[in-house]
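Intended use. Records like the one below are meant for learning the mapping from a protein sequence to its folded structure. Do not use them to infer anything beyond what is encoded.
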Amino acid sequence: MRILLAQSYFRVLDPKELKRAMPYPPLGTLYAAAVLKQAGHEVRVFDGMLARDPAEFHATMAGWVPDCVLLYDDEFNYLTKMCLSNMRDAACGMIRHVKSRALPIFVYSSDATDHSAVYLEAGADAVIVGEAEHTARAVMDLLQDGSFKLRRSDVAGLRYLEDGQVMDSGRREIMTNLDALPNPDFSLVNLEAYRSIWRSRHGYFSLNISTTRGCPFHCNWCAKPIYGQVYHSRSPNSVADEIEQMRERYAVDHLWITDDIFGLKPGWLEGFVEACSRRRVKVPYKCLTRADLLLRGDTIRLLRETGCETVWIGAESGSQRILNAMEKGVRVEQIYEATRTARAAGMEVCHFIQFGYTGETWDDIRLTRKMIRDCHPSDIGVSVSYPLPGTKFHERVVSQIVKKANWTDSDDLDLLFTGTYPRRFYRILHRFVHAEFRLYRALRTKRISSAAYGLLHSMRMVFHRTRLAWIMRRQKTLAASH
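Structure written out for the chain above:
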């Protein structure tokens, strides 16, 4: 069969990501493409990440008419897990366009898992839920012999409409042997365009790679619509082989290891060190982990030996009370110690920060700001609590979600439920904390290029802090009047 795979994350619809200019190919889409090619199908990929306009999808359809379209988002990229309404609208537009040409179309994404009816009512023949590569292959087999509609209930991992009702064929069992999958097929995207963007904006070329699927931890705000509460990893040899190939075939300078938690499995990092050493491969990379895991055994040394330059910690808050409410399972002291120890080993340590969790007060916010100042991470990513379906956090606040249930783009930062402070407070807080971070970082590293630079961030801090104080005073006055 001739199959067009497409992904509906359009970087052009996400101004913050467009400005960052750090695009990565849709890894999950390329895994599915490799599996379908292995099954003998003719496969092409429409890459929304590089598209200048969603309408480019129409041109692709006009230039190459497939037998089927598979709208398959990249579950390894946190941007698609955010379920942005801009991208949902784009996906539904793509579905309608495909159906206008009387072609079958299937959808796989976190958002389609959470809101299957939206995609099915837009015209999708089915939504794939759970781990998707083998489900997609089974669907194509039925399409090829013309029995899909008759036998769709036999394919585990599908939702579809029947007499106006959403039917579910049951969950497909998660793969345990990830080494059995072919490597993602980067030949199906314009890798030179990615290289050009990276080299011109950052001076190096970075590609993405996955070594695991899932996360076994219980942070109650974290959505896991695809894999649930599981964790499976590829073998160290498989990962080292792929890195060696990426270096030789694509001349990569840097890697982003997309795992939710990298190197969690006991003994895995030791095996990875050995596998990389045997192949004499060492490509600088960034990864994501937890503070408590960084402090486990020789983790930091092993990360450095395999090329880790930057580690992002899901710090979230400097308030132990908030971390406990999130069921994070980490102590604030561990965040301090992990940051200090990893930096001493020569790594950049960055913090993900989350404001607005239910019950958070200004005192909690001050503790988080103190943590940032004390730990002085290399970078921070600041967000606000975002209730996604399937989480305990969502269950707790869903009755308060009225105006909208999803962000428009990744820089929306709208508090979707009733928080301690009004919605605009958190957007201002985001700007204030970034201004404070940049000023203190510049002072600490003595990289203030001019007095004007320091004055600029100082003025921004004062301006945003004044606005925050005004909002808090007004809220206190309103509360007193009631």
